[in-house]
Amino acid sequence: MRLLYFILIMFLLAACQPIKSNDINVPEFDISEFKPGGEATLKRLNTRTFIHPSGNLSLEDELDFWDGFSFFRDPWVAAPAATKDRDGLGPLFNARSCKACHSRGGRGKLPNVGISKPMALLIRLGNENNGAAIDENYGGQLQPFSITLSHQSLSTPIKGEADVKLQYQMLDGQYSDGTRYQLRKPHYDLVNLNYGELAEHTVLSPRYAPAIYGMGLLDAIKESDLLALQDITDENADGISAKYNKVPDVLNNKIALGRFGFKALHPSLAQQIAGAFVNDIGITNPFFQTDTCTYIQVGCRQRSKIGGHDSQLEIPAKLHQLTEYMGQHVAVQPTRSLKNKKAQQGRSLFYQLKCDSCHQPSFKTDDNYPVKELAGQKIWPYTDLALHDMGPGLSDGKAEFEANKNEWRTAPLWGIGLQNRIQGYQAFLHDGRARTLEEAILWHGGEAKAAQQKFIALDKPQREALIFFLKQI
């Protein structure tokens, strides 16, 4: 009996031991990790804003970048207006400009607890069983704002769709070493509904606007390189089942691999930008040529017809392409203290916990990608752009084409440690619930549960080393 007791104690002690560096093969440090965007990486660290052109753009091409930036920065106004290139706002919308949701090219501010009309936090509407479903009265995305009364004299008055009520429930937890932590779980309700009740099966899916740097490089990854990572049935038995969403390519009228958006809704950066224009600002474009008014929203439909853009798009192809050019070339910042001893310890732990199973460290972009500055680059985005089951804790209850309610696209990690330095605040995950990187890891479930449990088992210096590494990439 005493021997059995001794064996049990030794087993428990071994289970609580910190991970040792020789438990798994850690790849040697690659000098290219200093430049996560390859030659397109920003040449010098700049902590004022994320908005910088690719480090390998010519001065002439930088002029096009800043021209495109003006359509990102400047607010849109209701049509008809003297500024024809900037009118067409709404009739319903989330924000007047891209910048309002992507502050300094990063993530906008989350709403406070209580009732508000959020901008950087979008509420998508759908249901669990139909990946293409939208709400009959409110469409596919809540739009809390409407154009002002002065622009409504010829139509039925327009009201924003609803307000959002945000509350948090605090959840307590504990690491294996006894250190306690607390997570916050958000709860959303729609109040002041102006177009009737939501459909019975409509669910609310919050989406916190992401940072926009490096998007062109993600667009430049070869599809075959992504599909090589797909393992839907977990044939290699590692507990990770990467799959890629299959979504409409609206210009080419076909189904394509999704890579942009929290559930990989869009197959290209151009379509992602177009979707944001029409859904967030109410700007029709070459991809989405009609406003998002539903049948019950009579004032919205009337106003859409008299805005002065009945025979042309609110942002035509030439200006949309200029905005896309800017989006392609928002530079990734260089990494910071990666050779620091603490960062190297954290890097080893990143691989030992098998975080790289989903956060694929590196790719080489397509040599034949049509934008030469983005082609053939060794990049370090730390994402596979694939969907993974993140467990019920992060479920939003909404399907999105082939993405189910528990599945989310792996978020890129490059530049993640600069959010607080550049913007003065930080929040992580698809809805901003995580206040720190530590909390973001603790929310990982489903396929990432094993890595989360290994993180919980680390001692405090190891946890700090891993977080330090993440803040350097």
Automatic annotation (TrEMBL):
Q: Name one GO molecular function term.
A: metal ion binding
Q: In what residue span(s) does the Cytochrome c domain sit? A: 341-473
Keywords, alphabetical = Heme, Iron, Metal-binding, Signal
User: InterPro entries recorded for this chain?
Assistant: Cyt_c-like_dom, Cyt_c-like_dom_sf, Cytochrome_c_Peroxidase/MauG, DHOR
Tell me which positions the record assigns to the signal sequence: 1-21
Gene3D superfamilies, per the entry: Cytochrome c-like domain
Q: Which PANTHER family match?
A: CYTOCHROME C DOMAIN-CONTAINING PROTEIN, CYTOCHROME C PEROXIDASE-RELATED
In Swiss-Prot or TrEMBL terms, this protein is called CxxC motif-containing protein, DUF1111 family
